[in-house]
Each structure stands twice: as structure tokens, then as C-alpha cells.
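Two folds, back to back.
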Amino acid sequence: QVQLVESGGGLVQAGGSLRLSCAASVSGRTLRVYAMGWFRQAPGKEREFLAAIKWSDGSVYYADSVKGRFTISRANAVNTVYLQMTSLKSEDTAVYYCAAGENPPRWGLRYFDPDYWGQGTQVTVSS
């Protein structure tokens, strides 16, 4: 069982930046994931896929809604994935979830289908 712990959420003004972190761990064995990614869920809306990164070579995929504003990265040595968010808007307000997948999605990172989820961290953007 992979455990994911997010941090870095909070309140930020519109136009500002925030960086989320997600530390992955597993007990009793070496962590092996194919990819990690970020999702978000705003009140009354469905969970939305934002970005994913392939653990082995750093290949990335971004949803159109965040392309150019958000950057996903990883630090393999510490089993951590990041989401750098810039030019934040009020519509970015949501609970942000980290996720990990052990197997490659059949049709590529665009169809990232995680096996594990973090508990979520709240991001609130004030206008």
C-alpha cells in the first residue's frame, strides 16, 4: 500500500503562486510507481485531472485548463512530486489531490488512472 501525503495548500490572492508537495512512501518494500499526478475537486464539481509525470523519465502531461500555468515535477531521491501553480485564479479554488499509479495507462499519461490517492489539501484563491 502506497501512502501519499500532500502539503503546501493554503490561501493565496489571485495572481499569486503556490507550490504543492506530495511525499510517497510504502512500508516493507521499495516504492515502485509508473506515474504520479495531481487532481482537484471544487465544490459541486467532479474531480478534474490536472497533470501527471512518468516516474522513470519525467515525461509529463497537462490538462488544457492548467497548461502554461502549472508545472509538475518530481524528486526521485525523496519520492516526492510537486505542483507549482502560478497566475492563480479564483476558479482554481479546490481540494487538490495527489495520486500514484503502478501501471502504465493503456493510452498514455493523458488517461492516468491512479491506484492510490492522498487525503487532499485545500487551495483557496481570493479575488
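---
second:
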Amino acid sequence: QLQLVESGGGLVQPGGSMTLSCSASGFPFAKYAMAWFRQAPGKEREGVSCINANSRATTNYADSVKGRFTISRNNANNTVYLVMNSLKDDDTAAYYCAANVECVPYPDTWSNPDMYWGQGTQVTVSS
């Protein structure tokens, strides 16, 4: 049974940092491109960052987070991470882990019909 379980969300002050984790099981993690998406209240879900399954683990980022967020993966423990620095109020959203994405240069879509989603974790940036 495929599972994606996000953790690490919570409340953080503007300018602060937070790390999200997504633990995967039930599929060959090392062979799948992974991504983080987010959805703020009243807005559409948007891609934040993705990482390929190739040997270089190439990454792509939305313009809004480039230079502040870093995605990485550990194939030994089936986990993908999102380190978020210099957080802003606009980063407040539910963050979702996704597997089997099309990790191509932004702004092309990373979604595809066969992708899988986690349940999400809330990140709130507020003073």
C-alpha cells in the first residue's frame, strides 16, 4: 500500500526556518521523482519544488521560493525533505508531498494522472 506521510509543519515567525519531511512506503521510492506542492486558502494548489530520481537528483523550484527553499531526498530511508528559509507570510499554506511527478523546469506542470499525494501538513508563517 503506497503511503506518503508529511511531517514538520507548524507555526513559524516571518524570516524563520522550517524543515518538512515526507516519509514514503509501498513503492520503489528511488525510481520516482518527488515534489512538494502547497495550497493556501482560496487559492489553487501550486508546485513548490521537485527532485528527479536520476543520479544527479536534479531539482526545480517555483520562482517564488527559489533561493529560499531546498529540496533533497534520501533514498536509503525513503524520505524527501524541504528546507524552508527566510519564510514569508505568503508561504502560509498546506504543504503536500507528491510522488511520481514530472519534474521539469518551472513553470511547466509537474502533475500527471498517475501521481500520488500525501495528506498534507500545515505551515503558518505569522508573528
